[in-house]
Write a structure and sequence with these properties.
By secondary structure, this protein is an alpha+beta fold. It is built from eleven helices and 27 strands. It folds into four domains: about 90 residues, RNA polymerase II/Efflux pump adaptor protein, barrel-sandwich hybrid domain (OB fold (Dihydrolipoamide Acetyltransferase, E2P), Beta Barrel), CATH 2.40.50.100; about 110 residues, Beta Barrel (OB fold (Dihydrolipoamide Acetyltransferase, E2P)); about 55 residues, Dihydrolipoamide Transferase, CATH 4.10.320.10; about 200 residues, Chloramphenicol Acetyltransferase (2-Layer Sandwich). The strands form seven sheets. It has a six-stranded mixed β-sheet. Strands 15-10-12-13-17 form a five-stranded antiparallel β-sheet, with no helix packed on it. A four-stranded antiparallel β-sheet has the order 1-8-6-3, with no helix packed on it. A hairpin with a 2-residue loop joins β22 and β23. The protein is globular, with a radius of gyration of 29 Å. About 30% of the residues are buried. About 10% of the residues have low confidence.
């Protein structure tokens, strides 16, 4: 008798899981205790073992796919057992009711798909992706498609990614036009033999008359097998002189960026004029005459009466579609701001010793430490002493995190990403500096993995490099606090009763009052002050 295996709840906060890898294939024998799959939860990637024996008859969630808890994961039963009833919604415990021949006919009138035709759905290209936007189609209806060809560029909430075909044939149908957004698993395209009529397939898909068994929806389309573009959103939206989009391979883009080459000046020799590696390597810049700057002479003052100003011109505006990343940021920050009762604490730090210590540290060979690295280290050490700040509000409970994962906010063209330094308190200053630079670079190039942005227990946002002296941040939930770091300012200060020139920096702590009281937040800042103003204590 067939046994349904659902997506398990592997942690107390788990609501959905990602199948990282299947260790058994359909048709394989399964023994009790065998590892079926590796499942990624909100906490870790865990091995999921079978509690039943038999043959693996069906896989309901493909590798890389995300599924809510208690949704069909797999079916185990006897070899050759008919499981069509289960796939159609009838559980093994439910007796199949007898139906008349007429009823049988009506229930089984589904659209059959011709051999060689493959229906491709909007893929899930990240664990948080709910919908995607087709930035551009690289193939048109009627074009031949080879396995591995790039079909389209799809914008997710994390990055713009190239989506390749896993089939060969002719592009028969495009279900989502350029610039349009659609939910994951929506009909994206159909590939098959030239001349195949797919109108019935499109209609059946829209009506939901195609089962997962019959539809032949590309299972690979829901896995993260696309190559992330190495450019940020601004760069991938670069246009040519004719107003068209620049198509280039990720490697070509990286080489061009490293060499400072403007891709709009490079002629592509790849498929459909696509710029490839050899085009960038063989590119020779042409001499472009520089524009002569126009000198504007200052008008002589006139004694003539001023003419009456009459407004002239035409009002204009442009509506730019919000990216998936911007939508997600807006949603989460809105939820944080209006659900968590924020309050703010600001102190001013004496940075003279920090400046001197940094200069000494950076004088060592192959060593580079920033002031932000010092702040990260100080906060990590302070969190060990003030555990109430290293918490999260869960409604009926407050979670006290025994580990310290500090998130560092990084600005990208589309918004803000927060790479996470796992076990920050165990890192040295130089290790913090190296990891921050590495993760920040990945974030700006949209190469950062989802697991590198998950699990923070505290967040730091620094706008000091932009000259901002003081600001407040919105808490990055489920964190209980976030520290805003301003610029180092040189100004007169009083030391030992004397007015001298000093270097100061303001930091502001935003706290969730549900978990962090005012006195707790103040004590945390006092500890951070002690570490920053005496950096040698962080090395003890």
């Amino acid at each position: 008798m067939a046994i349904i295996v659902n997506m398990p709840r592997l942690s107390d906060t788990m609501e959905e899981g990602v199948v990282a890898k299947w260790l058994k294939k359909v048709g394989d024998k399964v023994e009790e205790g065998d590892i079926l799959a590796e499942i990624e939860t909100d906490k870790a990637t865990m091995e999921f073992e079978s509690f039943n024996e038999g043959t693996l008859l069906h896989i309901g969630v493909q590798e890389g796919e995300t599924s809510p808890v208690d949704v069909l994961l797999a079916i185990i039963g006897d070899e050759g057992e008919d499981i069509s009833g289960i796939l159609n919604g009838v559980t093994p415990e439910e007796p199949s009711k007898e139906v008349s021949p007429e009823e049988t006919v009506s229930e089984t009138t589904t659209t059959s798909i011709p051999d060689g035709v493959n229906v491709i759905a909007m893929p899930r290209l990240s664990d948080t992706m709910e919908e995607g936007t087709v930035a551009s189609w690289l193939k048109n209806v009627g074009d031949n498609v080879e396995e591995g060809d790039i079909l389209a560029e799809i914008e997710t909430d994390k990055a713009t990614m190239e989506f390749e075909s896993f089939y060969e044939g002719v592009l028969l149908y495009v279900g989502i036009a350029e610039g349009e957004s659609a939910k994951v698993d929506s009909l994206l395209s159909i590939i098959g033999p030239k001349g195949t009529d797919v109108s019935s397939i499109v209609a059946a898909h829209k009506e939901g008359n195609l089962t997962s068994n019959d539809s032949k929806i590309d299972p690979k389309a829901t896995t993260v097998e696309a190559t992330e573009t190495l450019e940020n959103t601004h760069e991938t939206s670069t246009t040519t002189n004719t107003g068209g989009r620049i198509f280039a391979s990720p490697l070509a883009k990286k080489i061009a960026k490293d060499k400072g080459i403007n891709l709009s000046e490079v002629k592509g020799t790849g498929e459909n004029g696509r710029i490839v590696k050899r085009d960038v390597e063989n590119y020779t810049p042409s001499s472009i005459p520089s524009e002569t700057p126009t000198t504007v002479s200052k008008p002589e003052p006139s004694s003539a009466p001023l003419a009456t100003y009459t407004p002239a011109g035409e009002e204009s505006f442009e509506d730019v579609t919000n990216s998936q990343m911007r939508k997600v940021i807006a949603k989460r920050l809105g939820e944080s701001k209006f659900t968590a009762p924020h309050y703010y604490l600001t102190i001013e730090l004496d940075m003279d010793n920090a400046i001197a210590s940094r200069k000494t540290i950076n004088s060592l060979p192959e060593t580079k430490v920033s002031f932000n690295d010092m702040v990260v280290k100080a906060c990590a050490m302070a969190l060990k002493k003030h555990t109430k700040v290293n918490t999260s509000w869960n409604g009926d409970t407050t979670r006290y995190n025994n580990h310290i994962h500090v998130g560092v906010a990084v600005a990208v063209d589309d918004g803000l990403l927060v790479p996470v330094l796992k076990f920050t308190d165990q890192m040295s200053l130089t290790q913090i500096g190296g990891n921050v630079r590495d993760l920040a670079g990945k974030a700006r190039n949209k190469k950062i993995a989802p697991n590198e942005m998950e699990g923070s227990t505290f967040t730091i946002s620094n706008l000091g490099m932009f000259g901002i002296q003081e600001f407040t941040s919105i808490i990055n939930q489920p964190n209980s606090a976030i520290l805003s770091v301003g610029a180092i300012e040189q100004k007169p200060v009083v030391k030992d009763g004397q007015i001298v020139v000093g270097n100061t920096m303001k930091v502001t702590l935003a706290c969730d009052h549900r978990t962090v009281d005012g006195a707790t937040g103040a004590q945390f800042l006092q500890t951070v002050r002690a570490y920053i103003e005496n950096p040698v204590t962080m090395l003890a």
